[in-house]
Amino acid sequence: MPVIQFAIALSFLLISTTSTDTLYLSLDEALQLALKASPGVVEGTASRVDAAVSLGRGISNLLPTPSATLTSAKNELATAWKGDITITQVVFDPLVYAGLINGIINFCYHSLDAREKISRLVYDVTTDYFQLLKSQLLFAGAQKALAQAEESQRLTAERFRLGQAAKIDLLRSQAFYSQAQLNLLSAEKALTLAQSNLCARLGISSRRPLRAKQELGQPAELSVHDPDSLLLMMEKFNPGVRMLKDLKMVAAINLLASFARILPGFSLYRSYQYSDTTFPRSYQHWQEKSTRVDGISLTFPIADIKTFILNIGDALAGSRRARAALARARLQLRAAAQGAILGYEEARRRYEQAELNLELNRELYELAATQYRLGALSLSELLEAEIGLTQAEATYLSALCDTYIQSAEIAYLLGKTAWK
Predict the structure, then answer these.
(1) Is the pTM of this model over 0.85?
(2) Local structure of 154: helix, strand or coil
(3) Cα(180)–Cα(164) distance, rounded to whole angstroms?
(4) Is the per-residue pLDDT at 10 higher than 60?
(5) For residue 130, with 0-12 CB atoms within 10 Å meaning exposed, 13-18 middle and 19 or more buried, which class applies?
(6) CB within 8 A of 101, min separation 6: which ones?
(7) In this predicted model, what pLDDT tens digit does every residue of 78-109 receive, in sequence order?
(8) Do 270 and 87 contact (CB within 8 A), yes or no?
(9) 357-406 pLDDT, tens digit each
(10) What residues pair up with 87 in beta bridges, in sequence order?
(11) Across the beta sheet with 290-299, what order do the strands follow?
(12) What are phi and psi of 305, to 5 degrees?
């Protein structure tokens, strides 16, 4: 688009004259930088470590468990050394098997949590990036409008001095110039804030100027245009909903395991019991002075009836909380999805209307400029056409960037970790 290319070129030209150490980034480069330096990546990595730990804990209870003790007791006659090395293997225990399943589910949960954090980081960086790009374009447009207003004021002042313009035309040109200065100050503030936000998101602590260099030709497109299909995809792929599904399953397994505690636990063990008056000097010495004991261990949790009942009550409450959280998350996701879809549709319609409005204002300004040169139009009317064109350009640029911001929100709700 000519307006986009002109605005970007003007923005880069004006900014490059003030700083030679500016960092220019495309969106892909910004995302790559964020995935290396942002604190959000560290959080995602920690979630992956949690996933591995959860899986390891679930498996560890099924593996043989060794234990060892060595004590020394001294009386008036002699010193006695006693030791014990025991290896226990669980054969059947509802809580142990429930722990294994929970470990697998928690592994999936923390993996999804890591994905959600990366997806959120991509969404935040994408949003901040396009906010910066929009601020740059609006800043360039404000500078262009100020230059036009300054030229109009200069020409009007000269014509007023020669008696070719009325006082009201001079005042209007001065007011137009003053308003253009105010608009430039606001655009400069918005640009500075957008830079700071993106730097913080990327994990950049230096004061090096940052500029977006992405070129936008057409508005963002959605891969799925049917709202119902899009909502179904969000419920299927959204990491938050999938995480709550995992928690619901964990709660159901814990409830089942609590009822299963009515069954006895069954374990095998082998123990080497050492007893001598001297400290074991070697492995052979230990074998000579120890006795091997093989046995079976049975536990009856139902014997502690109060703990059994309390565990069931706690598991029931956890299961209900998990179901309620999942239901709430689905409702919130549906509301967020509908809001994002409506936001995108609004941004797309505003873009289409802004594009049409820009073309109309461009034609109107060209016609007004021609009539003004022919003396058929007053200066105030020309200034109004010029103001309308400036506003139309700003609206067009803003609407174009908003389509990408709204598209990024939908991609985040789908759990995507890339902006395209």
Answers:
(1) no
(2) helix
(3) 24
(4) no
(5) buried
(6) 58, 253
(7) 778 888 889 888 888 877 877 778 778 778 77
(8) yes
(9) 999 999 998 998 888 888 887 766 777 788 788 888 888 888 888 888 88
(10) 66, 270
(11) 65-74, 79-92, 265-276, 290-299
(12) -65, -35
